[in-house]
Amino acid sequence: MDYQGGGESDDRVADFVKTATVRMTKLKKVVAPYFPMIARFLLVLTFLEDGIRVFFELDAQVYFLKSHYGMPTWLGGFILIATVLLSFVGAGLVMTKKYEVYGSYVLLGFLLYQQVLYGHVSPVNSGRVGFLFRNLSLAGAFFLLIALKRLGEGRSALPGLPDPGDRATLFTYFQLASRILMVLLAVEFIPAWGGFWFVITIPVLLSVLVGYKMPHTGIVLIFIYFLHNVLNSA
């Protein structure tokens, strides 16, 4: 009797796993065409979140520029509003895909601006090293976006670089580099999170690093980054 009961339990588990697998396969077929757009959206989402936060904390940001750099109030306000609007434009261009290269250049400029203005102070929960890794990882992601777009058009990876010839190998290296950059981005917040999120995030990081179930695990990781930004801003 015990053996039969165990067999029925195993059958139920097997049926559940089979049903879940079938549903996940169907969902993947429906969502797969939208993976590139979802990935781009989650990539630029941090810029949208940063920009909205600047607008809500405009007085504090202007005071920071005035106290640290001696900027007049009107100039600090103008620079903040102008750069945030440019970052929104860059994010929109990246989402269009047709102009994603131009949008990537705009957001690269915004990252440089952020690093110059805020890199010498320690942002909350990340520190100078974490902030630097964040910007380097995002910059690397945009350089990869530019390179893949140019290679797809039959050009060199980046302006000024020679054509490597073996594009398949180059694509493989780019994919590896993109995974490493995504994992390095976790340096910004992993030390500040508790044990629960550490346990949740580490398997995803390892999966991304070895390329397991990409781009699914990559999207999960980017969503975790987005969730971190939301919770950190709350």
UniProtKB/TrEMBL annotation:
<keyword id="KW-0812">Transmembrane</keyword>
<feature type="transmembrane region" description="Helical">
    <location>
        <begin position="74"/>
        <end position="94"/>
    </location>
</feature>
<dbReference type="InterPro" id="IPR002995">
    <property type="entry name" value="Surf4"/>
</dbReference>
<keyword id="KW-1133">Transmembrane helix</keyword>
<feature type="transmembrane region" description="Helical">
    <location>
        <begin position="131"/>
        <end position="148"/>
    </location>
</feature>
<feature type="transmembrane region" description="Helical">
    <location>
        <begin position="101"/>
        <end position="119"/>
    </location>
</feature>
<dbReference type="GO" id="GO:0016020">
    <property type="term" value="C:membrane"/>
</dbReference>
<protein>
    <recommendedName>
        <fullName>HTTM domain-containing protein</fullName>
    </recommendedName>
</protein>
<feature type="transmembrane region" description="Helical">
    <location>
        <begin position="30"/>
        <end position="48"/>
    </location>
</feature>
<keyword id="KW-0472">Membrane</keyword>
<comment type="similarity">
    <text>Belongs to the SURF4 family.</text>
</comment>
<dbReference type="Pfam" id="PF02077">
    <property type="entry name" value="SURF4"/>
</dbReference>
